[in-house]
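>> Question from a student workshop board

For tomorrow's exercise we were told to take the sequence and the ligand below, predict the bound structure, and bring the output to class. My setup keeps failing. Could a helper post the expected result so I can at least see what it should look like? The ligand is zinc ion.
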Amino acid sequence: MKSCKIKISGRVQGVGFRPFVYRLAKSLDLTGWVLNSTGSVEILIQGSEANIRNFIDALSHDPPPLSHIENIFEEIVEESTYTDFSIIKSREDKGFNFISPDIAICDDCLRELRDPHDRRFGYPFINCTNCGPRYTIIEDLPYDREKTTMKVFKMCEACNEEYHNPISRRFHAQPDACSVCGPHLWIDSLNIPESNLFKEIGKLLYEGQILAIKGIGGFHIACDATNESAVERLRNNKKRRSKPFALMMKDLDMIRRYCYVNNTEEKILRGKERPIVLLRIKDYLDLSPSIAPGNLYLGVMLPYAPYHYLIFDDFDRPIVMTSGNLSEEPIIKDNVEAKDKLKNIVDNFVLHNRNIRNRIDDSVVFVEDNDLTFVRRARGYAPDPLKVSIEVDPVLALGPELKNTFAIGSGNYVFMSPHIGDLKDLETLDVFEETIEDFIHLFRINPEILVHDLHPQYLSTEFAEKFKSFMKVVPVQHHRAHILSLLLDRDIGDPIIGFSFDGTGFGEDGNIWGGEVFVGNLRELHRAAHFKYFPMAGGDYSIENPKRIAYSYLFSNEIEDNGNYLPISPLEKDIIKSMIQNKKNIFYTSSCGRIFDMVSAILGVRSVVDYEGQAAVELEMCAMDSDTSAVYPFEIQKGSSLEIDILPMIKKILEDRQHINRSIIARQFHNTIAYIILSTAEILREKYHINKVGLSGGVFQNRLLLNILSPLLKESKFEVYTHRRIPPNDGGISLGQIALAMKGV
Ligand SMILES: [Zn+2]
Ligand SMILES: [Zn+2]
Ligand SMILES: [Zn+2]
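>> Workshop helper replied:
Here is what the output should look like for this input. Compare the format with yours to find the bug.
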């Protein structure tokens, strides 16, 4: 007879770990106890040595499906004798926590939801230890019902029995509930009996109504995706002219009617995380043409909350499911706020009374070459920690201005926040500050270092300034942070040639960077190449008007727009000319994203944008119609830092524009950007003897570019690294900022 104490850390709370341990101990005739402490599960077992061994083997090899074990620590101890095995009260402790992300309904619960003989038949909030909400309902840790938003629902006798029954799937399932004791769903303005609720929701959708539907991590705005007038009305109400809407579809059969789905995509669509997957469109069929104008991909997800399935029982068409927010603000999570802010956008509200404590958007991913790339890492993934190869001091990294996420880190772990939004207004800033406080509290990390973007005017910089007297505050340049993110994401210790291509970021020389190449590693990165600066007249306004970027470029290089390709008035031309001549309100930029914008405008693909990246996205779509392998001329001027000059290409594009189909030009432009990267990498390899190439920044969300570029780099024997665990866009930057808190630097 031996006693053994075991401590397991990792994602072991909220995933059915204690019930699993209980059942395992019972089956092996072991006695003792199990409890949750902060960030770990502690176990004491007593029994024969062989059974203790079997117990530990089973723990490490066959743990509950949603758990993730980081460490198992075991030691033989002297203990008084226990006669039974029990789950005992949680204990608060030092060390940090892991919180499970929210998980889509499992097959067992789905079966019960459909079973007329089950007591949870048709219950919209059915869940168990293997599925359901987690992060979104947690108020504090250790993870117990009274520290979740479920605490207001007192379990009925039947639920209580399951909760305490070790052989039940709901043994210690904190969000456990049923229609007698748990949360409810209703349509706000209508008095519909529960038995008719989903029929009514289906009817409203068929009638073309726009509904705000409270979800797991926040509100969705929903309508019939085949009803053109409903979708148009939604666009008008939301003042969102053309940015694609995501869709929810009933099942894979429905998705396959509209989109191509390969095996990897199918696996991800059905996975417990249930992200939105960007799929190549096969046929629009009956879908409203306004879903994703000018785009060849559709963002599609499968149902993930039980009531999503119930909605599709009475509605047999794809549903628009876009985030319930105003423009780039954070997703709305509370009933009162939704009714206030969305009242002019939707016709009706489908509400429920399970409070969302922590908001989180749907994740967005795509698959290229069988690899998953994040566009947005949120529900289903966040707040799972990212393990990194370096040790960091307790740190808070404030992230970028657009697509903000922040991160907190300590030791080898980084917790990245879900998508917050664009940190341009005070409303978003409030949520930003609130979520930071929550993260610090939940994960028990007290930052000693604060990292922020170099841009002097960002709200995050202003925020950081306030802490200067209490802690170490460190700025970091945006494009460096992209490369640092990639190094941490892919665990790259060796030096690399890192391409940091995106739209915009404040440079170390005061110019607007965006086409930068760095050489080095996590400790030292130096800028080794960049696109030649060109003037941009009028800052943010010109970013919304790619035609103005193009005209600034042409005028400053003394090229005439002979064919009058740019829809730009003589007055506008004069304004730009005078700005450039007088060097007033001029920014110099090396941005690769702006080069995409410029070419998009010259080709007449998109001269004014209404969402970020639109001109480049539509240029990519335009190029997909051609398969030319031709390349435009460009120059790389050598010096201490290489300078990439695209003037020869732009001149040739203007010439071609007169007699060549613009798809061919657009494709040739993509080829040229790929060859620019290849040539730059080859020159730098020769100079620095580095063979690893890394790609980070929003430009590398361009799937066509990746498809052209990867084989070129591989053919030239480069090892190529792209992002895997976080997005290549600015949503991934906070991870890289963490590197500034590396120990021993
Ligand atoms: Zn379940
Ligand atoms: Zn109940
Ligand atoms: Zn960026």
